[in-house]
Design a protein that fits this description.
Radius of gyration: 17 Å
Strand content: 15-25%
Structural class: alpha/beta
Helix content: 25-40%
Order of helices and strands: HEHEHHEEHHEHEHEE
Strand order of the largest sheet: 3-4-2-5-1-6-7-8
Distance between the termini: 38 Å
């Protein structure tokens, strides 16, 4: 299959030298911390979500997937936000066939894997938006797809809907097991973050860390105005990772 071209928004997606070094390095630090967060049992599947919409979870998912692929991991990035999917636009992929088509049984798994411009990175787009996303995501076919994907790829990343808006993220979290929570600086309400944490813990998922997104580093006396901080925490106690 011919490789698809990345979106023409180079200041967001990691692609060669499109992003400032410090931003790219922050994603590499995030990748390293994820790897070492569970050294005895390597993470094979990871859900990236947020407490509310517009916190940057999809961009974080895309760049994190690229970063893993650049380290020669075989990566599958799945757009499991079946209500507001965006990954097909970020990577300029067709969304004619995707995850929903697999879950209703009209296609086989190998038909929904799409290559990208990045070596070692495949993307599964959402497919058509269904009337019953929660039921599809909680189906046995979704479990079977995850089992198959984990056998075929080194790591599977899921771009998920926000936790507090629908049941979708909790369902996916129970499947993936490991969760990375994205929080927008000076925007997200603390109560909403705690509510998201409680909902994820209810389904026995493991929050391996938090990404603090859209930090204005000019105010923090750094060189770049737009950056991604990574904080690792088992119980939501932030510990800053210095670059």
């Amino acid at each position: 299959m011919k490789k698809n071209k990345l979106t023409q928004e180079p200041r967001y997606l990691i692609d060669g030298e499109n992003l400032p070094w410090a931003v790219s390095e922050s994603y590499r630090t995030l990748r390293t911390n994820i790897i070492f967060s569970q050294a005895d049992s390597p993470i094979r599947s990871l859900l990236i979500t947020s407490s509310i919409p517009e916190e940057g979870k999809s961009m974080t998912s895309a760049n994190l997937a690229i970063t893993f692929a650049l380290a020669r991991n075989k990566v599958l990035l799945v757009d499991s936000d079946l209500r507001r999917p965006v990954l097909h636009r970020l990577f300029e992929l067709s969304n004619t066939i995707g995850l929903t088509h697999l879950l209703v049984g009209t296609v086989e798994p190998e038909e929904i894997y799409q290559t990208t411009r990045v070596d070692n990175l495949w993307v599964v787009t959402s497919g058509l938006i269904p009337p019953n996303p929660s039921e599809l995501l909680g189906s046995q076919k979704m479990r079977s797809f995850l089992d198959l994907a984990q056998k075929s790829f080194d790591i599977v990343l899921f771009d998920s809907p926000p936790v507090t808006s629908m049941a979708d993220a909790a369902i996916l979290a129970s499947l993936a097991g490991n969760v990375l929570l994205v929080v927008r600086a000076n925007s997200t309400n603390r109560d909403m973050i705690l509510r998201a944490k409680q909902q994820l813990e209810t389904v026995n998922s493991r929050i391996i860390g938090v990404v603090l997104n859209s930090v204005d580093l000019k105010k923090e006396r750094y060189y770049y105005n737009y950056y991604y901080y990574y904080y690792y925490s088992s119980y939501y106690g932030y510990e800053e990772k210095k670059n």
